[in-house]
Each structure stands twice: as C-alpha cells, then as structure tokens.
DNA sequence: ATGAAAGCGCTAACAT
DNA sequence: ATGTTAGCGCTTTCAT
C-alpha cells in the first residue's frame, strides 16, 4: 500500500502563535500565564491568533518548565462488585477539578505505596486525593514524604499534614439510633459486618456514634456478620412478639433489600429498615422507614475536596482543614 | 515564622543516576528505554544507582521529548445515579492500563468535543478510550482529526478508524427471546424505555436481536416506557389468566426489583424476570429465572479494550479491529 | 510594555 | 558498547 498522506498533524506551538500575532514567543506565554501586564492591543492579537490556530500549550513542556502538571492524582479503591457510589465520587471530582483547570489521573489502590511514589517522583501529579484509606495505610508515608498537598476523602484518626473531607459518620450513627428509638424499636441490627470492619475509620466513627446514644437508651445493638442474603431471616428470628427491629447497614443495602423480597420476608410491623443509600431507593417506600439521602452529599463531599485541594495549591503555606458534611434524612 | 526547613525535596534526575553509576547521562536513558544494547555490567551499575536513588524519569521531560505521555484518556459518561457497572469498567481499565505501563486520565462526557480537543492538543494523552458514544457524537470528529489511536467501548454503526470492543448485544437480544420462549412465556416486557433509547447503539442492536427471533416465534414484545416503579403492576395487568410474561431490562433492573418487592407483586407463575446484571443478584433466586452474568464480561471487555489500544500503539500501521464479547447465562 | 535567551530533564541522532 | 550533543516547547529572568 502506498502512503496516501501523513498520519498526525503536529500541533501548533506558542512560536506559531507569536509569528501570527507579530509578537515574541515569550509574550504569548505571558498572555497565557498572566504573570505580567500586557497591553490590551497585544493581548487581543495574541488571543485571536490562539483562537485561529486552535492552540493549546504543550503539557509536557509546561510541566517540565513550571513543575506544575495541572494533574491531580485520585487514589481509588478496588470496586468491589456493584458500588455505584464510588463512581458518583469519581465523576464529581473530575468535573469539579476541570472547573478549576485540573485533570484527574487514576491511581488504583492495587498499585499501593509504589504507585504513589511513582506518580509523585515522575511529576505527573502535583496533588493527590486519597479515597478509602485504612487506619494504617502504606500509601500515606510516600504521600507525606512527597510534600505534595493532599486531601483525604474519609477521615483518618489524625492527619495534620493534609486536609480531610468526609461525611460526619458519628452524627450518622447518632441519627440512626435516635431514629430507631423514635420508631419504637427494641433492637438495632447492623448488617454488613460492621464489627469486623471496625478497622475502617468511617465504620469505627459510625459505631462510636451509635454506641454513644444506644448506651443511655434501651436499645440493643446487634452487629450481624453473616451472609447478607440471610439478614432478613435472622432479623425475624431475633424479634420476639410485640417487638420491633430496626435494620441498618453502611453497605449491602441493596442485597438486603433483594433478600427481603426473595425470602418473601418483607418489612412489616416487626421490622424497620433504615438505610443509607442513593436517590434510587426513595421510591421503595413500603420497605423503608427513612433513607439518609447521601447521593447529594457525595457530590458535595467531592466538590469540597477538590476546592480544598485547590486552596492548598494556590495559597502558599495554607494549613490543612477538616470538613465534615452532615447527613440528612429523606423520608420514604 | 522562621523557615525551619525547605518544603519539597527535588527528585533525582538521570544526571544524578549517571554520576552515581559512573556513566554518561544518555546511557542511563538507553538503559531505561532499551533502545540500544547495553553491556550487562553497565546495565547493572545503572540499575543499582536507580534503585539506590529511587529514581523515576521525569514525565514532563520524557513526554516533551518523545511525544509519548504514557497516558490514555478515558472518556467517561455522566454517572446517572447508582451505576456500579461503570466503576467496574473504569477500575478494570485503569488496572489493565498500568499493567502495560500506561496511566488513565479521566475526561468527563461533560467536557464534550472541546475536552477531547484539549487533551489531544496539549499532548496529555497519546490514545483514547471512548465510553458510551451516541450514534452521532460530537466528540468523534476531534478524535479522528487527532489521528490518535482509540478504542470504543460500545459499538457504533461504522467505525473503520478506531477499534471497537463491546458485548454482543444482538446475541443478547436473541438469547433473551429464546429464553422467554423456553420458559413458555407469551409476552416479553422490555422495561427501561428501550423504544425511546433506540438512538443508543447498544439498545438498537439489542432490539434488532430481539426482533429477529421474536418475529418468527409467537412472542409478543412490549416496550415499556413508563416509571420503573410501576413496571411490575403493569406486567401483572397485561397478563391474562394462564399466561406468562417475561420481563427484561438493559437498565433499571434493581429499581424494578425494588418495586416488585415494594408492591408485594412478586414473581409467580405468571411472571418471569430475566435480568441483566452483576453477580450480586445471583442470590436472589426466587425472583429471577436467569441472569446473564455480565460483571466478568465487563472486566473482560475493559481488558480487551486496553490490550487492543496497546496493540494499536505498539504496532505501527495496525488496522482497527472489532471484538464482540459473548454474553453468558448464569442460572439463578 | 515587550523581547532575547537560558534551561527544565529527557530521547535519539550522530559521533567514535 | 558508550559518549556528546541538539533540541522538544514552554516559563521566567534579565534586558531594554
């Protein structure tokens, strides 16, 4: 086959823009970065030339020279099965980042500490957002070492060097218990094995909230560690006549719902499901007593995280902040 | 405040490695790129020095010089509510990309054609993976213009310039109808408004498969365009005594399940739910007749997409390919 | 208010 | 088998 035409048109450079605008190359750069005053006339000619050529500054050159890549690394956890919430975070973060002129580069949890070291040392990322950290996490030391600004989604025990944005899980725990009491339940069944997941910071904070309030009320808290499919049956079994069991899980809500339907053991006077989930569950009223509406919170948390990171990037010597977002009920 | 110590340690360069190994800087580069033979002794000294310094090549410099950024742009659709499948794709793509030495940069659908133009012109991405294209999509022209290799997840009508990896939706359509007939159903209710979504290529291919087989069988196909919450009630209403209705949806399966539970209108002899979903639904047997197990397919599709893109990147002048992945049943 | 020029850290052509 | 060197396209200091 003879070559009909060449493959890739090479992108215009600031040199090309300068030539077209009749200015020096550095002037183009100054117009772009705004790091020195430019006369209105010159700026206009440069901007026209930029538009005419469809010029975009070369990212490699810019990064090499300025040490700012315009890229934020996002450390995502392994998606275990069907976690829709995760994509809400990722999508909102990407959108908000673009709004501030940054791109998002994915770093999978699988890459571990070495992955962090890599994106930091190669200079691809100039800041990091960390999702779902363990309480002791191998990926934290390389982040601290790098000195890059970072924001954690999900509050670790102590983290004075980076900012934190998270849902107020302690408050959520208190809210769930209070709700169960209001609904005159005798027992709160926490499914999804929160006991064993206590190592996770969100879980431990949630449980702290639960225990705070449950202790002084007459509410028995049971942590279920078995299969999600059997949660409804177990709830039924542990509920004596004239009693009522509230059910709540930080995860696995859908599976439990399916299971309740499947076993034909639906919610009735003896059981109450308080669930934590997205907007799509609000319609399922007969099954639910109340849903803390978290989907908008997730977007809010994502946006706050990005804005906080941008603040750290722009303000030199800015100190980290902790931001907790309050959960809210949606009545079902 | 007096400065106690400087903030960020500057990363070692190939120059530092060269000095430590007692070779020239270019030799370090050749060891790294493997683009010329190096004696075993030299290679070893260089690699030792690299390890000792924790050296990683500067990404900006490498990109600027080689025009290869090592970054693949991933165009993700807007996550509408709780779409767990999406994150499965994104996660698997990121993992597989890393396995081949590439990073994934997110490009949200929201950015549109201009977003594509931007990542292409700035040179951040050297290849693209496109998810959920419309049949006529404004983002395609800039991709073609760029000349960059790309892979589409989800088959468009015609696309000779880029590769395609997708589920075989036509086969899925045929499978669903055949299954409904096997199960002695008189009617197939397609929920989630496939009629109006026919513009989407996967939907249109699915319907083509459905219609192919349904025509010659005695199966009535009804496309439901109403609220998902009322699908079970409508199915019940349209089913005469001694009849059976199969139900299937490409999306909204969970909502329909919830609705069936909520209205206490469960599956019985008159109705059969054939659903398209992840592994988490397999347990819900009484509700389901059969589940095409798609979660592993999604991982497979993601990995194939990345591998295909890598092939296009590595093999010069490689021609695009279409890869269709077969759906498979899982019995519930 | 603008221009000229240095150089960021690499890759790869051109040496030997 | 290795070294020397010329840039890639920007940002920014030093001129004017």
TrEMBL record, chains A, B:
Keywords: DNA-binding, Transcription, Transcription regulation. PROSITE patterns: HTH_LACI_2 (PS50932). The keyword Transcription applies. InterPro entries: HTH_LacI, Lambda_DNA-bd_dom_sf, Peripla_BP_I. Gene3D superfamilies: 3.40.50.2300, lambda repressor-like DNA-binding domains (1.10.260.40). PANTHER family: LACI-RELATED TRANSCRIPTIONAL REPRESSOR, LACTOSE OPERON REPRESSOR. This is LacI family transcriptional regulator. GO terms for molecular function: DNA-binding transcription factor activity; transcription cis-regulatory region binding. Residues 12-66 form the HTH lacI-type domain. It holds the Pfam family LacI. CDD domains: HTH_LacI (cd01392).
């Amino acid at each position: 086959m003879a070559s009909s035409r060449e493959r890739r048109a090479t992108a215009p450079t600031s040199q090309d823009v300068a030539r077209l605008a009749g200015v020096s190359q550095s002037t183009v750069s100054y117009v772009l970065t705004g790091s020195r005053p430019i006369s209105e006339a010159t700026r206009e000619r440069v901007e026209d030339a930029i538009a005419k050529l469809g010029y975009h500054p070369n990212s490699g050159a810019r990064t090499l020279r300025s040490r700012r890549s315009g890229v934020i690394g996002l450390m995502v956890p392994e998606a275990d099965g069907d976690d829709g919430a995760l994509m809400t975070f990722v999508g909102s973060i990407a959108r908000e980042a673009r709004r501030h002129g940054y791109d998002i580069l994915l770093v999978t949890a699988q890459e571990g500490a070495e992955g962090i070291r890599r994106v930091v040392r190669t200079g691809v990322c100039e800041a990091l957002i960390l999702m779902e950290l363990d309480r002791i996490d191998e990926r934290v030391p390389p982040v601290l070492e790098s000195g890059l600004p970072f924001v954690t989604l999900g509050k670790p025990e102590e983290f004075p060097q980076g900012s934190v944005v998270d849902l107020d899980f302690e408050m959520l725990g208190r809210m769930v218990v209070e709700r169960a009491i209001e609904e005159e339940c005798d027992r709160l069944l926490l499914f999804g094995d929160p006991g064993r997941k206590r190592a996770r910071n969100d879980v431990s904070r949630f449980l702290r909230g639960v225990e705070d309030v449950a202790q002084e009320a007459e509410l028995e808290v049971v942590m279920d560690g078995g299969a999600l499919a059997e949660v409804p049956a177990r709830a039924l079994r542990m509920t004596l006549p004239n009693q009522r069991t509230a059910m709540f899980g930080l995860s696995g809500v859908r599976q439990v719902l399916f299971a309740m339907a499947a076993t034909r053991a639906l919610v009735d006077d003896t059981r109450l499901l308080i669930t934590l989930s997205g907007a799509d569950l609000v319609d399922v009223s007969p099954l639910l007593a109340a849903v803390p509406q978290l989907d908008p919170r997730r977007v809010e948390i994502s946006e706050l995280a990005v804005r906080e990171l941008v603040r750290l990037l722009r303000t030199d010597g800015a100190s980290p902040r902790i931001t907790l977002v309050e959960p809210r009920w949606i009545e079902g």
